[in-house]
Records
---
Amino acid sequence: MIDGRAFFSRYIEAIESAESYIFIETYIFCDDKTGRKIQQSLIRKAQEGVEVAIIFDAFGSLSL
């Protein structure tokens, strides 16, 4: 069984291992501890030259 902690740990590992591009589509993206970790990983990869694109649902991500 994969719980939230394991899922997001692997999610961030996948972001960190990207070399060319990262395309993410998600319903919910929250401004919480996990969301900020993901955000920082995406920013870091973009600064390294990796193409980063994220699409999220406006209703599911109201906190942003």
Note: The two ends are 30 Å apart (CA to CA).
---
Amino acid sequence: MLKFVYCVRRRPEITPEAFRKYWLENHGPLVRKCAGAMRAKRYVQSHTLDTPLNAAAQQPRGTQPPYDGLTEVWWDSVEDLVQALNTPECHEANRLLAEDEARFCDLPNCSVFFTEEHTIF
């Protein structure tokens, strides 16, 4: 399977609580509505927890503060995604999703990329 990963940062004027609520209750249902046009098989939101464990994990590694969350979207194959991308319905779905993401995400500080999973255990 092909996986799309979207590391998300919230817009600075939006509180973490409002961000998570909008992402889950508004954007999530919109993604569900668009999934067929995109031929997406699975969509998962992972919301970053507000816990001291984050600092404990970052400190020894010297990493940046965490993203506010990440999204994972799966397709059966690269070919399936490419076929979907060649349809007007998928173009419209991507337009709607990007327009909505601009409402709550700090897009220039987000990151998106495709991955291939390798299960270790």
Note: Residues 103 and 117 are 30 Å apart (CA to CA).
---
Amino acid sequence: MSVDKVLIVDDDKEAQNLIRNILDCDGFYTCVASDGHQAITSVEREKPNLVLLDLRLPTIDGFEVCQLHHSKS
């Protein structure tokens, strides 16, 4: 049985924890990233089924994360 994996990308730790707790209780496997660089690394390493991506991130914003990841695919 496979568990859906969700990557939560947000620099707000409270938001990360709230979303993570809700998803964990519903049986999802969650991982987190706090900035754009971590998001890109986590997508490559974790291969999540879904990414919840904040658009306002330090280092690289969410739009650029999408563009960078798409250009690598």
Note: The radius of gyration is 12 Å.
